[in-house]
Amino acid sequence: MAMVFSKFLTADDIENGLSIPGCSLGQLPDQEGLTMSMQKDLRVDDKVTIHEEAMKKQGSGTWIKVEVKRKIRLFGEDIWADV
Fold first, then answer.
1. Which of 8, 43, 47, 65 fits a 20 to 30 Å CA distance from 79?
2. Phi and psi angles of residue 24, each rounded to the nearest 5 degrees, phi first
């Protein structure tokens, strides 16, 4: 699975939708992104990484995986936890 894009979220990304460079990916569903930000309680400075993988059974499609991590402090150490 190849990483396509990664960024730290801004307030604008959370309120209006994630800004992704046009050369990174094709069209993504807009509604699902806003729903995800509400369901996952995404916050400013959360790290979003988008991975892409070719489908094994179908030659023309791809799977898109969105990974969100949040930095938390645990026992004096900063760690990145999945959201």
1. 65
2. -75, -50
Is residue 18 a contact partner of residue 3, using CB atoms and an 8 Å limit? no
Which pair of tokens denotes residue 75? 């026992």
Across-strand partners of 81? Answer: 70
Residue 73 tokens, joined: 């402090």
| pTM to 2 decimal places | 0.72
Q: How many degrees, rounded to 5, is the angle at CA 43 between CA 20 and CA 34?
A: 55
Give the Cα separation of 7 and 80 in Å (integer): 14
Domain ranges within the chain, ordered by starting residue: 2-82
Are the C-beta atoms of 80 and 47 separated by less than 8 Å?
A: yes
Alpha-carbon distance values, 53 to 24, 32, 57, 58, 81 (Å)? 13, 19, 12, 12, 23
How far apart are the two ends of the chain, measured CA to CA in Å? 20
